[in-house]
Design a protein that fits this description.
Structural class: mainly alpha
Largest sheet: none
Order of helices and strands: HHHHH
Oligomer: single chain
Helix content: 40-55%
Distance between the termini: 133 Å
Length: about 130
């Protein structure tokens, strides 16, 4: 009698469980250890939103929701002030002036005689 085999169910993708223990990411003095935090963030980035949600405790979920609503309110208030486009900065560029225009402006400011002295066209006599 020939053996019949039943097809095995497809294997599920196994995602490593990440335990959210912030204390593990800190050294003895309480400062964050960047290497371990980076690894945690990289592993968490590979998870689906549902799996990421399972990492949070109920109180962390409440804090995350509160933070999200605060950020949304701040964005709404900022957009209310400036609209959807950034504040425009207008740059006024003056065309280069000719030497004659500069001399005429100087003469208008300090007077014709003083302008000639300043430009070296005439010497000041005491």
């Amino acid at each position: 009698m020939p053996k019949t085999t039943t097809p095995s169910p497809p294997k599920k993708l196994r995602v490593p469980k990440i335990q959210n223990k912030p204390i593990e990411h800190r050294n003895a003095t309480g400062y964050i250890r960047p290497v371990e935090t980076q690894e945690f963030i990289q592993k968490a980035a590979l998870l689906t939103p549902k799996e990421r949600d399972q990492l949070l405790t109920p109180s962390e979920k409440v804090k995350a929701h509160h933070l999200k609503t605060q950020i949304e309110e701040q964005v709404r208030s900022n957009l209310g002030k400036t609209g959807f486009k950034p504040i425009e900065k207008v740059q006024h560029i003056k065309a280069p002036r000719t030497p004659e225009e500069v001399e005429a402006e100087l003469a208008a400011i300090v007077g014709k005689d003083q302008a000639e002295v300043l430009l070296g066209k005439r010497k000041l006599v005491n």
